[in-house]
């Protein structure tokens, strides 16, 4: 029998040194990266204030891919591209090619964007971005780049699939605080953009690590809920913003191992100070430093993706628009963006085509057993969606990504509708929809996500 002093020392040692989690199973994993920098000159998307094409590349853009699992229906691919958005046509093209070549089901392909506002305009995203009819030469240049971009997404996914070899997966969640709520509301009404202390914001930073049998990092996947708008409209050059800066730092720290950055529900969050080109490395370093901290600590092991679902739905608008209303909007004196969109809608009616009655939407969910659930939401989703999902599913380990598989519009929360403003109304002029979404949008999407995760709907 051991002396009491020895037993006490052993107990103290056990409490001082946390037990490391058991290693997870070996999973075939491949990663790849491809340069997607456009040829210049090209119009950039994200700020309408830009009226001329970008002539300069300040930092190159990339797309990265992560392939998980064996050949067959369990193979799963995630892509993260440094662009403003993923068009529905682009996502469909990539998914169909991967299904044709490798038999991957659509639900197991997720295509995401970092939402950089210093990337090229794309043919199938934000259709009324510039509130003017572009010259044919500019349209052709954008269309050519979009075709090249799609093929590069297929190529990088194919490269990741070819690069698969046994690896271990682990994940952890940290926090980074530079995302700031941006909606300034006065007397219950939206007044503009700013930095709003105490406003809803999601500061979670989930990180997935891929290591080889010797423990060396082969790749990283991370997510953070914040606009890539450290750069302003006056910064008319190609750049991946803070997300690209963070990825480059992480890759440099691990011998070039690809670092995929996805964006969470941060459509109502902008980077805080500093801003501009000098602010990019500040925000990028915060993300990279937190990733480094997490990688140096024990992480939770994961196995392969055990289940994947994808659901398409239609989000109703709050009402139908009339021709008379569109004619009023198109009249002199209307907001330029509103007037241009109204003229486009009137042209559709004049051609005998009906205006859309609902907005197409897609929700996707992956499960890594019961160790982690990933939810992918289309569009520019505001923070209250991820905050609510975590609140209502407290026992789940959730990783929520927005800007996934399509970017049809902003996706506001129920609380925002009485306030109005850009995310609810003004942005619809750029995205090409005649009216705002219905106030029940949040409940429709949350219920769909929870159903896909096997949880019953709940409306507080």
Defining traits:
single chain; 460 residues; four-stranded mixed beta sheet; 10 helices; globular; disordered C terminus
Polypeptide structure, described:
The strands form six sheets. Strands 1, 3, 4, 5, 7, 11, 12, 13 and 15 form a nine-stranded mixed sheet that branches. Strands 16-17-18-20 form a four-stranded mixed sheet, with helices on one face. It is α+β, with helices and mostly antiparallel strands. The relative contact order is 0.14. Helix 4 links the parallel strand 12 and strand 13. The longest helix is centred in the first third of the chain and has 27 residues. The protein has ten helices and 21 strands. The protein has two domains: about 400 residues, no CATH class; about 35 residues, no CATH class. The protein is globular and about 70 Å long. Helix 2 packs parallel to helix 3 and helix 6 crosses helix 7.
Write a compact overview of the structure shown.
This protein has 460 residues and is an alpha+beta fold.
Q: Assign the structural class, choosing from mainly alpha, mainly beta, alpha/beta, alpha+beta, or little secondary structure.
A: alpha+beta
Between the first and last Cα atoms, what is the distance in angstroms? Answer: 57 Å
Number of domains: 2
| Oligomeric state | single chain
Question: What characteristic shape results from the CA principal axes?
Answer: globular
Strand content: 25-35%
Q: pLDDT below 50 for ≥5 consecutive residues: which ranges?
A: 1-20, 456-460
Major beta sheet summary: 9 strands, mixed
Q: Radius of gyration, Cα only, in angstroms?
A: 23 Å
Q: Average pLDDT value?
A: 94
Number of strands: 21
Number of helices: 10
How much helix, percentage-wise, in residues?
A: 25-40%
